[in-house]
Amino acid sequence: VMLRVAVDGGGCSGFQYRFELVETADADDLRIEADGQAALIDPVSLPFLTGSVVDYVDELSGSQFVVRNPNAASSCGCGVSFSI
User: Facing residues of 62 across strands?
Assistant: First the structure.
C-alpha cells in the first residue's frame, strides 16, 4: 500500500491536499521512498509539493497527515487548505 499525495483546487484558501491509500501507481506518478515507505505524487501536483515534508501525526484530538510546505504563502486553520 502506498500513500498518494495530491493537490486539488478548492478549500477556503484556493488549494487543498488530498490523501489516498492505493495499491498501484499510475504510469505518470513520481514514486518517493523514505524510511521504507512509498509516496506517490502526480506530475500536476509536483510543483506545489516540491520541498514539502509529509508527516503523520497521532494526537489525543485525532490522527492526520500534516504537510509542511515551503511553497505555501498561507494556510487555513484546518491545515488542509493553502494558498501560493
Answer: 59
Query: What is the count of structural domains for the chain?
Result: 1
Cell representation of residue 63: 490522527
pTM of the predicted model over 0.85: no
Q: How far apart are CA 5 and CA 3, in angstroms?
A: 6
Distance CA 56, CA 83 (A): 21
Whole-angstrom Cα distance, residue 13 to residue 23? 30
| 16: containing domain | 2-83
The set of residues, in sequence order, having a beta carbon less than 8 Å from that of 83 and lying 6+ positions away, is 13, 14, 15, 72, 73, 74, 75
Taking only the tens place, the pLDDT of each residue in 27-47 is: 999 999 988 888 999 999 999
